[in-house]
Amino acid sequence: MDNAEYFNVLLDNKTYYSLSLIATMLIYYVFLRRFVFSMLDPLFYNFFFSALASSTVFFLWSVDKIDDLLLFHFVFTQSVFFVFFVFFEKIFSVYFFRLKRNKIHFFSQWDNFFYFCSLSSFVFLFSLSVYFFGIPALNEMDGGSRLQNYNDSLFSNIKRFLDVFYVVIVFFALKIIFISNNGLVGRFLAYFGLMIVIFYGVSLGSKSFFVEFLSVIFLFFFWFFGSSSNPLNRYVKFLIPIALFGCILMIYSKSANAFYYLVYRLIISGDTFYMSYPDNAYLLIDSANWFIATFNGILKNLHVISQDEVLTPLGYKLYRLYYPVDYIGPNPRHNVFGLIYYGFFGAFFYSAILGSVLGLCRGLWCARRGGRWFESILFSLLIVAASRLELDIALAITGFINALVIYPLIFILFYFLYRFFSFSSSSFFEKNS
Known about the structure:
transmembrane, Oligosaccharide repeat unit polymerase, membrane
C-alpha cells in the first residue's frame, strides 16, 4: 500500500482512524507516563511517534487491510519491547550503580581547554563538510536528497564527529551560562557555540534536529538539577513552540502550506506498517543476511564486508516496492525489521533485546545522574542513541558508536594535547575582575 492508497482508505474511514488513534494514545499514556519526565524528554518524542505509528496498525486491521496474525505479531513484539524496557529500567535505576549526587564543580583549566578544542574542531569540520559536500538542506531544495551524502564514507565520518561535538558544546555552553559564569569571553563563546550548533541543524535540513536539540538541553538540566528547582521548567513553554517553529522551517521549502505538510508527516508516522503489512508485502523483501542487515554500517566501516556486500537499507527496499526512487524510505521499526530478517518467532527475541538495551541505558542514566561532566555527556549520548532503537536499529547503532568510540577517542586525544601543551593557568576564560 503506497501513500496515496493509504490516504484514500483513511479518508473513507475517518471514524475508525480517529478511534484507533485515541485508543492507542490513551494506552501509551496510562502505561508509560511515569517513564517520561518532560515533554522535552527524548522518550516523550519516541513514545509519541510510536503511538502514532501503532495506531496505523490498529486502523488497518479495523478496515480489514491486515489479518489477525499480523496484528497479533505486532501487539506481541510491541508488548515484549516495552515489558523488557520497564523491567531493565527498574533494575538499573533502582538497584544498581546508584550514585550519590556530586557537588556541581566549576570550570577547571582542563574543562576550558576541552570546550575550546571541541568548539574549534566543530567549526573546522562543519566548514570542511560544507566545502566538500555543500549544505544538505540546499541540496534537497535543488531536487536532490539530503540522504545521498550519507553514502559517502568521508561525509558519514565527519558527521559522526559533528554529532558528538554538538552535544559536548551544548552541555559546556549551558554549564557556562547557568552554573559557572566564566566571564565575558566565556559567555560569548558559550552563546557562539549554541548559535553555530543551531546553524548546523538548519543546514542539515533535518526536521527532527530541533526536537533532538531540545532533548539534549533537557538531559543537561535534568542531569545537573534534577526535577526539582530545575531552571528549565521556566522555559519549557517557550522551547516547545521553538521546536515546532524549527520543524515548520525545515519543511517550508517542500510545501506552500507548511502546517498541512506537518500534519501529513504526523499521519504517515506508520508508513513502515502500511507499506509492509497489507497484502503481506513484506514477503517480497529479501530476508537473507540478518547479521549484515543489522550491523550494516559498522561492518562496512570496519571493512569486514566489501561495498558490494553492503545491503540496501530496509526502508529504501520498502519504498522501492511502490516508487522507483533511491535514498528515500521509512524508518524500519523493530516490529517489521524483526519480522523480515529474524522471522515470525525470532522477532520476539529481537524486540526483547532492543527493549532491554533501552531500559538499561535509561536506568543507568537515571542512576548516574549528578556525576561528573564526562559521565553526563556519555550517558546522554547513550540515551539519545537508545531512544532510536524502536524506530531504526541503524540509527541507534550509529549513536552507540558515537557514544562508546568517538566520544572517548575525542576525550583521550584532547587530554593528551592538554598534557602536552601544559595549558597555562592564566586562561582567557577566567572571570573578568
